[in-house]
Amino acid sequence: MTLPLEVFETLLKWYLTQRENYFFRQNRTPYKVWISEVVLQQTRMQAALEPLERFLRQFPTLQQLHQASLENVLHAFRGLGYYNRAKNLKKGADYLVEHFQGQFPSTYEELRKIPSIGPYTASAIASICFAQPLPAIDGNLKRILSRLLRLNLPPNKLEKPARQILTPLYQQSQHHPGHLNEAFMELGQKICTPKQPLCLFCPLQNYCQSHQTNTVAQYPPQTKTKKKVPVQWQLFLLTCNQHILLQKWKDFYFLKNHWGFPSKLHFPTNTKPNLLSWNNLNQYLHLARPLGTFRHTITHHEISAIVLHLPLERTPPLTPDLQWVPLPNVEKHITASAVKKAWNLYQTKTLANSIPSERKKNP
User: Fold this and answer.
1) Which residues contact 240 (CB under 8 A, 6 or more apart)?
2) How many whole angstroms separate alpha carbon 122 and alpha carbon 115?
3) pLDDT (tens digit, 9 = 90+) per residue, 96-147?
4) What is the distance between the alpha carbons of residues 302 and 334, in angstroms, rounded to a whole number?
5) What architecture is the 229-357 domain classified under in CATH?
6) pTM above 0.70, yes or no
7) What are phi and psi for residue 236, nearest 5 degrees?
8) Cα distance between residue 327 and residue 89, in whole Å
9) Catalytic residue IDs
10) I need a surface site. Which of 105, 106, 293, 349 has the fewest CB within 10 A?
11) Cβ atoms within 10 Å of 300's Cβ, excluding its own
C-alpha cells in the first residue's frame, strides 16, 4: 500500500499558494524550529502564536535559554500550558551546550538524544533545517494518510506504518522534505481537519480513498477517550498588609515547581486521600471567606475549584517554600492558568467590595 509520487507535486502546488507566513517560518534556524515544533504539538496554532512569539523574544537564542533560570523559563512559557515542555526545553538547551557546544546536530539519531526532542520533532528539524528525507509524523499526517489510504488503525497505531509508507517516497522525491512536511501540516490544519474536513477544497481529493467512498468520517478510527478524574480544588488566598502568601509546589499533585496558593485537593470518586499543600493551613481555615468558583481541566482531570480569602492580622512563620509577595507583584510569580483564574477572581471581588455603596447604587 503506497501513494503515487505525484501526490507530493499536487500538495506542494497547493501549499505554495496557501502557505501562511508565520513569524517562526522567517529566518529559519534549528533553534526556532525546535521551539515552535515542541510548542505546536500540543497547542492550537492560533492560541500559540502570541505566547510563542513572546517566548522567542525573551529567549531568541539557545545560549539565552541555557543561561536563564528555570523559573524565568516557566514564566515566559505562560499561556502555552503543559509546563513539562518548558522544563524539557531548558534541559534540552543545557544538553546542547554541554554536549554539542551549543550547536544542533544534523542527524535524526543525534537529535533524538536531546531532551524534549522526540521522533516527530527530530524529523521536523532534520528535514526543515538539514534537508534530511524524513517524514515528520504528527497527528495531522497520521489523519491525512489514514484517509488517503483508508488505514483502519487508530492514531496511536499509525506511526510505524506511516513511516514505512512515506520514508521511501521522501527518499525518491526531488522536493525539499521540509517543504513536504510543512505542506502536510498546513493541509491538516486548514483542510483535512479532525472534524468537518473541507474535502471539496482538498488538493488531494482525487487520491483520497475515503473521499471517493464517502467514508472520511470513519478515518482514522478513534480509540475510547480516557475518563477524566474529578477533583475538588480549594485555593486559599491568605493576605496580610497588602501582601499575599504564595507557595512553591515542589511535591504537590498539580503543577510541580510552580508558585501557587496554598491548596487542598479532594478526589470524590477516587481512593486517593485528600491532599494539603501546607500542613499549617488548617489553623487558619476558620477565617476563610468564599470568593467564588470556576471550572478547569489539567491533563485528564476535571476540576471544580473554589477560591477562599483568608485575611490575616499577623503573618505566620514561613518555610522555604512559602513567600509573602506584595499584591502588585503577584502576576510576576504565577504562571499556571488555574492559579491565574483564582487570582483574577480575588481581584474582581476585592475591587467590587472596595467600591462605595452609593456608587454601586448609582453607576
Assistant:
1) 311, 312, 313, 314, 315, 324
2) 11
3) 999 999 999 999 999 999 998 999 999 999 999 999 999 999 999 999 999 9
4) 21
5) Alpha-Beta Complex (3.90)
6) yes
7) -105, 120
8) 30
9) 37
10) 293
11) 10
